[in-house]
Amino acid sequence: MSAGPCFDTFADDSVSPLVRKAAAWSWRLLLILGAIVTLLWLILRLEIIVVPVALATILAALLLPVVDFLDRRGAPRGGAVALVLLSGFALFGGLLAFVITQFVEGAPALVGQVTTSIEGVGTWLTDGPLDVSPQQINQLRDAAIEALRSNQEKLTSGALSTAGTVTEIVTGALLVLFTLIFLLHGGRNIFAFVTKMFPVHVRDRVRDAGRAGFRSLIGYIRATFLVALVDATGIGVGLAIMGVPLALPLASLVFLGAFIPLVGAVVTGFLAVIVALIAKGWIYALITLGLIIAVQQLEGHVLQPLVMGRAVAIHPLAIVLAIAGGGVLAGIVGALLAVPALAFVNSAMRVLLAEDPAAEEAAMEAEDGPVVRAEPDDVETPQE
């Protein structure tokens, strides 16, 4: 009966210690990888719930300081939430209506300029060094029209699928609204209740980590909003001075694109360069490109270090990888949510893994401002 353990001991001794360590690391890493894959699978399956809740959390990080300010000045909590939400809807709706109006007014002129540019390109192709015949140009045009007609069925099915997408968008928007209301009104109570699932001896550490992560999320959203506003103002004013059509809609796209770090503002800025090229020519396109580069330099060397603290600072490689991973998993929404999630996890893990969470949280508070804490009467203290 004793031969079994002896044999096992002999078998272990016959294996190199390096192989034993590699095997031990391998099955543990496989378990961790399996847990991560399972979590991502669940998130993707529940995307219609996870994405609205994540968007509501980001909006709560942007609006919560205003609600807390009104609450400290004596306003009822519910009234403060209603005032902030109604003001936000009015501001966003007015801006959206203004942008759409400007786009509708400027689109005909842009279409006329595009038509003129296409005619100019056709003239250059026929009279220029390429010596393309008008018949060849007409053949290319007819081929493009035929390709569009042959794919009409696919376009129709795409429009039908868009109708289903609109339903999902409306459902998600309502979920965002309701979640945002509850987070602004009693988010701290919700967080305190959720953390009760953790064991008593780690509960305070988890709560400290959550507060630190949310504080970093507030700092990130606030900084990104200011950076996006400066980017849009600088580029919009420059386009308006040069007389580029659709300057305000393009500036609005730059503002929205700036919420996707490193990538969004570049892509939307490139669209502005294309419009300037079509409408005004090469010189104005190069000036627009120079303007965008100057704004990006101002953002990278002045605004980002000034408005973001060290707790929110993330290495550019981590940002690029997070955006790429989020884009692969969930498209534009994934790219939008990747960096805020990374900022939250980065700060939360610093506190969660610190030897002294209180000291780490105090250090982050000294670097970036006060942690968003619940007031004593906001959260019921659990009786354990």
Automatic annotation (TrEMBL):
Protein name (Swiss-Prot/TrEMBL): Transport protein
Organism from which the protein derives: Mycolicibacterium vanbaalenii (strain DSM 7251 / JCM 13017 / BCRC 16820 / KCTC 9966 / NRRL B-24157 / PYR-1) (Mycobacterium vanbaalenii)
Keyword Transmembrane helix belongs to the record: yes
Disordered: annotated span: 361-384
Similarity annotation: Belongs to the autoinducer-2 exporter (AI-2E) (TC 2.A.86) family.
Statement: the UniProt record of this protein carries the keyword Transmembrane: yes
One of the GO BP terms on file: transmembrane transport
Location of this chain's protein in the cell: Cell membrane
Segments traversing the membrane: 25-43, 49-67, 79-100, 169-187, 220-244, 250-274, 281-298, 318-345
Alphabetically ordered keywords of this record: Cell membrane, Membrane, Transmembrane, Transmembrane helix, Transport
Highest taxon listed in the record's lineage: Bacteria
Entry's Gene Ontology cellular component terms: plasma membrane
Membrane disposition: Multi-pass membrane protein
